[in-house]
């Protein structure tokens, strides 16, 4: 596999990562495996009986799984995959919430040498199908409900899909025809240890992410990413065995896997797995009741917690909250308002530490680490081993750091960090064009102040960030294009005080259709049915024309300026 990662990184940063690698163990036959570092390494040592997971359901029931138990469960799942004929490099997907099966599948698949890929439960059939096809999903683990409602109908269009395992759901529907019962299959499987067959460069994790144009990109990471997972679990979060860590990210996205499962476990911490969706009152209570020591969340959630705290009812709750166990609160995914940083300090006793990274970087790259002064509104400084800068692309293709402080440019990373993505599957050109002159170009605009703090300015492309989720306009446009009334459609983000941005579609109609309320509802319904409510546009604006370039491409940036249309 060609990697652009070998290696413009300077000698100091190579030494740094080599030292971080030495902090990890190795499976018995050498090599490197993320699940071995996350589970087996602790299972056999003095921390084996500590809880790896605390799964909390909607009624507050807590189920604990120790590292030792998780080792056996993941052995079983890995051996089940082997018995089903899975070969290293084959893809195992989940479409699950934060429930034991998610963790068992992710870690068991990694142990077996499979590639693990999580899907977002709120996706509708279109985004699910695109991703499962592109990622050559061979095994899917999901609920009976998700399966029958969204996936079963296109199973035959997925030639690679061989096995579907369904977890027990509260409706007790059992395993529908053509699927296997996850719980029973695990019980029947062989629990003996598995020696993972992987080395540092073998593929491990696949995450889909969106660009301005075209289908979603499948960013592939190798087992070596665990070096960054572990280094950041310690360096950014200060995690050690016994710490309670709560990452609130949805398991369908990169943060939900890397910091919701892998990184904290490599440090021996206990992961809180909350099955429910966001609820401000419940979240405040969870922080207290679970004695969360380190909390990793996102600006949209923080803004909603702030909003509740601004009410009399919320105040009554937060005034009596005991967050004495909370050592560190951190944020990721969207710009964190300076007010939110300070609100955390004042009302929760801890300021929010902003962190920056991306699907492609595989782990945190820039952060306000403990012990360094926070500049509210800044993403912090590059971590040790990470060479980040604000750069310009010269006409001759050369990449040069901007010289003056506080100057906006492209946020770029010198290639060669261990969790750097290794490809966009089947899209070599797209992958190559993310790199230039020894740099990875992030697609974000940023500036760096005279003291080396990085400040987020915006995206250089047209993707939409809504409630922390990256949404590709093209995917949304495609779901509307084949509505019989639509002539053309352009999708862009509209600023929103809570979610950062919301998805809005600008539509021109074919002759004979009226821009009325019934049509608006019909368009919204079609989009929701295909894309899922989290991705579908929240607003439709009917326009006469869409702004275009001379070559006929929609100018999404100008769409935003169109506002509410005529
Ligand atoms: C994009 C990456 C971060 C991992 C999970 C999401 C935006 C990320 C920050 C931050 C402002 C941020 C960027 C980035 N972003 N962190 N601290 N401040 N913006 O990964 O879905 O690949 O999204 O999220 O635009 O490029 P992702």
Question: What's the domain count?
Answer: 2
- Let me know the CATH homologous superfamily of the largest domain: ANL, N-terminal domain
% residues in beta strands: 15-25%
Q: Cα distance, first to last residue?
A: 52 Å
Major sheet, described briefly? 9 strands, mixed
Bound molecules: 5'-O-[(S)-butoxy(hydroxy)phosphoryl]adenosine
Give the helix proportion (percent range).
Answer: 25-40%
CATH domain class of the largest domain:
Alpha Beta
In the CATH scheme, what's the topology name of the largest domain? Rossmann fold
Low-pLDDT ranges: 1-6
Q: Could you tell me the number of beta strands?
A: 28
The appropriate CATH architecture of the largest domain is 3-Layer(aba) Sandwich
The structure class reads: alpha/beta
Kindly provide the radius of gyration, computed on alpha-carbon positions and rounded to a whole number of angstroms: 23 Å
Give the gist of this structure.
By secondary structure, the chain is α/β, with parallel strands linked by helices. It is built from 17 helices and 28 strands. A 9-stranded mixed β-sheet has the order 2-1-11-10-12-13-14-15-16. Strands 17, 18, 19, 21, 22 and 23 form a 6-stranded antiparallel β-sheet that branches.
Descriptive report:
By secondary structure, the protein is an alpha/beta fold. The protein has two domains: 9-445, ANL, N-terminal domain (Rossmann fold, 3-Layer(aba) Sandwich); 462-562, ANL, C-terminal domain (GMP Synthetase, Chain A, domain 3, 2-Layer Sandwich), CATH 3.30.300. It contains 17 helices and 28 strands. The strands form six sheets. It has a nine-stranded mixed β-sheet. Strand 3, helix 4 and strand 4 form a beta-alpha-beta unit. The longest helix is centred in the N-terminal third of the chain and has 17 residues, at 67-83. It is globular. Mean pLDDT is 95; it is low at 1-6. The structure holds 5'-O-[(S)-butoxy(hydroxy)phosphoryl]adenosine (WT7). Residues 209, 254-255, 332-335, 354-359, 379, 442-444, 456, 459, 465, 470 line the site of 5'-O-[(S)-butoxy(hydroxy)phosphoryl]adenosine (WT7).
